[in-house]
Amino acid sequence: MSLETIMGPIKGLGVTLRTMLAEPKVTVSYPEERLELTPRYRGMHELRLYEDGSEVCVGCSLCAAACPADCIFVEGAEEENEGRERYAKQYMINYSRCIFCGYCVEACPVDAIGMTKVMQDLTMSNRWNAVWDKDALVANFKRRLAEEQGTPNPSLVSQTASKRHGAISQ
Amino acid sequence: MIHYLMTDNGIWAFLARVMAKIIIVLIFMLLLCVPMLIYMERRVMASMQARIGPNRVGPFGLLQPYADGLKLFMKEDITPTGVDKIVYYAAPMVLLIPAVTAFAVIPFGTGPHHGTAIAPNTNIGLLFAFAAMSVSVYGIVLAGWASNNKYSLLGALRSSAQMISYELALSLSVIGVLMLSGTLNLVEIIHQQQLPLFLGSEGLLSHFKNWFIFKQPVAFVIYMIAAFAETARIPFDLPEAEGELVAGYHTEYSSMKFATFFMAEYAFVVAHSAIAVSLFFGGWSGPLLPGAFWFLGKLFAIIFFFMWVRSTLPRFRYDQLMNFGWKILLPVGLLNLFLTGIGIVLFQR
Lengths: 170, 349
What we know:
heterodimer, A: 170 residues, alpha+beta, two-stranded antiparallel sheet, 5 strands, 35% helix, 14% strand, elongated, B: 349 residues, mainly alpha, globular
């Protein structure tokens, strides 16, 4: 038995004691503290609006065509009276199918769809609640804007959730 | 009434005192100490691995072990077909009861009238503790045998071989202290460590100058290593190998019966640490504060060392374990006895 075999464990005890006294810990206490997500993080989708509040989406269905998981449903409509030629009458994303690849964002010719960093609202007790409609996706956009302007509005989360559930139950 | 119970020398008052002490020890062990140790172990190991550990249930997560215990109560209690029912039910108890029994003779502190916080102040205290704790091997063998599972039986054989091998080294290391003290009475051993080193050396230093760890450092090292093996903790946790195996002798146990094995393991950690405190660190002796405080402080320091080692060292291989026990610890323990004997002849005659 050499000196090293005796000193080895003692050195090891030193390492653990130093780690114990060292701050900070690597653990993130999740709901209170959150890690900074990367800028290109692909969370839930948003449907963008122009500054006058009208929708960017033209209902071309290219996102639905690009979607490898086939989770986007778009029903386009034309209505010349409202000053826009074509828009999406219905826009739904089924999050029980979505794989968050971002192909829909790449496919969009008018940059109407994007991805937010929000992921934690995607909890549901019913598979029908996994289908998000246009209003909910627009609300995602509004919430991101509000948060970027430094006025985070947590109540928006529950609002979008209730809206979504109401829309589905009808 | 209380005064009568505390001071009377009649048989009923004595029995009442003993019962009260036993109940206090049981409550202390099972409801306070074991959950506290589990909590402490999880927090200490977490901080040594740069994590936080349980901090959600109750203040600082202190209620986490109770929540876990509640969960274990709710779990289905499975009795596999083909088990030897009586032995299967008895085995966890056979393991736990010796661990708690050993506490009967451990002096936690000084009480009123120069009494001590133990059930009987017997002059075979240390022998009693070791005899009681040796019985636990039966619990392991019976658990493995009664489970009617060849892997449980193999695990039980592995565990009992390990415990029997290291019990020799454990006893040898203790004999070094016994040769110096000349008594098996734990209270007496602690009193001897409180003696001033020479006349007129009373003061703060006299509280720890005479600790047997300074006279028997080798015995202490052997004792601690053997205690790790006896309690089946890292680096000798082959009986369970929580890291990669399912379990050892308690593979077939579930629910509260499994929890009983767990409790027994922690009870043994406390028992071995308490004996180490009494033998090597002067028991309850210490300045200013009451004796029980010092005893528990030293106890938790040693238990912390158990946890510290657990989060540091890897596991021995089985052949290394046997080699280390028989070829290193045992000869070193014998050599220590030999040198202690020479020292006694040279210096204490």
